[in-house]
Design goal:
about 140 residues, 3 helices, 7 strands, globular
Length: about 140
């Protein structure tokens, strides 16, 4: 069987792995994800506490109607109830606790920041595509091994 090698453990690689299993007939053991960080998820690094609030940088993955995301998650069982999909779990959760994102950037004290006024610092290109020698600038480890 063919092997798939995915560099980075963000939403793109995790989605690619799920689609390879669902649509490409791959077994999970034939998909290898390499991630330099200790956690997978990339910008989907949600965290927080009830006292400080919760954040998730990856909200931008949701397109206007969530069609692509819900399609992806429709083939993945819910962690809480494997008899239903992750999509159905999200929809049920929204019925119980509706969400409405009022802002993407919030300063200390809850002040909403206009995202157009923020300029991120320049970043150096990283990874295999930006490195003509073909070397990574950090140790990549297979995920889940």
């Amino acid at each position: 069987m063919a092997q798939a090698y995915l560099v980075g453990g963000g939403i793109a690689a995790l989605s690619a792995a799920a689609f390879l299993i669902r649509d490409g007939g791959f077994a999970g053991r034939d998909i290898h994800i390499f991630e330099a960080q200790d956690e997978v998820g990339g910008s989907l690094d949600a965290g927080g506490t009830p006292e400080t609030g919760y954040t998730m940088r990856g909200g931008r993955m949701f397109e206007a109607q969530f069609r692509c995301t819900y399609d992806l998650l429709s083939g993945i069982p819910s962690l809480d109830d494997p008899s239903k999909s992750a999509t159905q779990d999200i929809l049920d959760s929204h019925e119980e606790s509706p969400w409405d994102d009022a802002a993407r950037l919030v300063r200390k004290g809850g002040v909403i920041v206009d995202g157009h006024s923020v300029t991120p610092p320049p970043r150096e290109p990283r990874g295999l595509l930006a490195n003509p020698s073909g070397r990574c600038d950090g140790p990549a480890r297979p995920v889940g091994r």
